[in-house]
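Data follows
____________
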Amino acid sequence: MVLDELSGNLVGLLVTYVDDILYLGEIHIVNALHAFVLEKWPASALEWVNDKVAFRYLGVEILREPQSGSFSISQAAYIADLLRAHNLHDTHSTLLPVPREWIEVVEAELDAVEADIDDETLRSAQRAVGEALWLATKSRPDILFVVNHMSSVVSKQPSHVLRVSQRLLSYLAGTCSMKLLLGPRSEATGEAVCFTDASYAPFGRRSFGAAVVTVEGSAVAWKAGRQSFVTLSVMEAELYAATQGCVLLESVFSVLDEIYPGRYKRVLAIDNTSAASMCSGGPGSQRTRHLKIRAAFIREAVSEGRLEVRHTPGDLQLADLATKLQPRLRLWRLLSLWGFVGDRITEILNAFKARLLSVVVVLSSLLVPATGVKTGEKKSPLPATGWEELAFLLVLTCVAVIGVWEASKAMFRSYRRWVKGSRKFRKLKRVSDIASEAAKKEEARWVDAALGAPRDDDH
């Protein structure tokens, strides 16, 4: 940091990575810093960030946006190099990173190993993962989920990884013009917000979690990956993702607070109401005691006033981008929320709006059909309904309802009487049959006894 000797205010920043230097500040401050460096070490001439040609630093292209004055980052040149290296510069572009079926088939048999894996295929797959990982961590969080999948199976199924890599390059070819805006998009809020989300066991095993930290609405850090153990509920997966995101927020906030002491407050944004309640200090129950222990780190920060937990709607959850494969419309909606701009995003969102508008027009025409009227023709006034008609209609409706109700009751009573009568008749018939049968048996017994008895004249 470069501070003013008299006021102690921050006037510039100097960032170094090995032998690459980045100056941040006013022109005279940058020139003074570079002159100081030249006194100690030899260095090349300065390259200034402008709104015409992108400036490249550590493989990331930085450009000043002329309309807003913000900065944008992208890696279009690096993507072009990858396409040339893989001979895919003329490939057909796609709007989704990878088909969902490709991922689901392999994740269903995660322990399966390809037969006859040769060293060349394995090295090519590892190189493809490294190339995609460099993009995902620098400027393209939209491919994080796919890159995590590739990393988890690269040693077991390298041929599958190469296939996914080819498809991913086709997606990057169609979206290489996308840029991530860095700069305030609204009034200053003084908040460093960490959005966290989890996809609970999408393939029946471990869940996927993601976190993204924004400062004044701009994404400055993100992470995503498969959770390190199997969670037993959605709430537990969300709590684990929130804990990991809180750690990321702390690391970003330490740098932010050093540059602007006391200016920003920390906010944790969760879209799961149960997890948000637990992190905010909710009492819970004995059954959720283990979850309360897992959230103890966040609860302590909340109780000390160092962190605010906020519930955010699911459709505004930025971290959802890296937890699963998104449908096309949801993917581009999330990219827009992140601050990505580009011709492709604008084209797709405008096409969706036009399609939605056409559907609304068609539905409205079906509900209220249009009637042609000649030019100059006097329109007939709309008929007005008086209160007498409404009262008559109300009385008629009430009478009809009461009539239906009374008729239903009468039919039900008749049915009950018939059922009871038939039961009584069957019971009496059964008793009569039993008595008749018993009388016949008794009569036969007496007849047999009379015929079988000895006579008086036989003695």
Summary: The longest helix spans residues 387-452. The chain is about 50% helix and 15% strand. The two ends are 148 Å apart (CA to CA). Confidence is low (pLDDT under 50) at residues 455-459.
